[in-house]
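Hi everyone, sorry if this is the wrong subforum. Our group has a chain we'd like a structural model of before ordering constructs, and none of us has done structure prediction before. Sequence below.
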Amino acid sequence: MICPFCGNDDTQVKDSRPAEDGVAIRRRRMCSNCGARFTTFERVQIREITVVKRDGRRSIFDREKLERSFNIALRKRDVDGEVIAMEINSIVRQLESHADGDVPSARVGELVMSALSKLDQVAYVRYASVYRNFREARDFEAFVEKELSD
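Answer:
Right subforum, don't worry. Here is the predicted structure as tokens:
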């Protein structure tokens, strides 16, 4: 593993332990050159996922982008980080099980909406406002009324 501070490729693992409910390994590392300490995570990747955008463009699935979406929606909300990690892992597993590895971006968005609706209603509406491209206050109102009636 390359040191993110000095670029040295000789780093040592100082500690390893399970993380994210056993689906990842957290490793504490130390650079033998500059002495910096940093953490890495190791996860199983069953297959490479390609996200197909609405306009037909294709991009490699980025787990960190998914995590950022959750963090933005859940900012200043009292939701346990382990629960969030488990939801993200669940979404990734569902995407990996997709038959050919090509997943429409709309599918990713719907999985995120479903997970957020279980975690926190405010985060759900925040994410929906961007995902569904709300333009006015009445868009929020219509969305909330629809969700409450379902």
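For your construct planning: The mean pLDDT is 89. Helices lie at 63-73, 81-96, 105-119, 121-131, 137-149.
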